[in-house]
Amino acid sequence: MRCWQGKSSKQQSISDSEAELKRFLASKFLLVILSVILIAVLSAFTRDFSQKHLVDAEVQELEEEVEELKQQRDEYLAKINYYDSVDYLKQQAKKNLDLKEEGENVIVISDEELEKYLVLEAELSNLQNLQNNDIEDNTSRKENNENKSKLEKQFVVWWDYFNNN
After folding, report:
1. In angstroms, how far is CA 50 from the centroid of its own chain?
2. Predicted TM-score (pTM) of this structure
């Protein structure tokens, strides 16, 4: 009878391979290889994440541009609708073709008369500015009364001009 004190060859080889595996797992070589793999995976992840961020930013910019273009399109469509409207056509006919609708009075003011009335308007504006100043002495009160009468006269002139011609 033989008595085996040691391990069987099969057990011995398993034990040796386990020891080799443990040595390999504990080796610096494996640590370096795993570190390189980890760095490669992290750099790929970082690159993909960065690229995704850039793409998202570009998509956001394009969406904003699309919104701006939609607003611009809507404005252009509104202008087209206005230019196609009857009101615009009437306005242009009145302006360019001297169209006059029934019951409408047309007043034409020559450039000379317009200049005259613009000068009067400027004087009137100056008079109103004087009127708004609170001057306490009697002479200024008399001038204000005169200015008021000039304003009233100016109003009457305009009224007569538009209603009597």
Report:
1. 29
2. 0.39
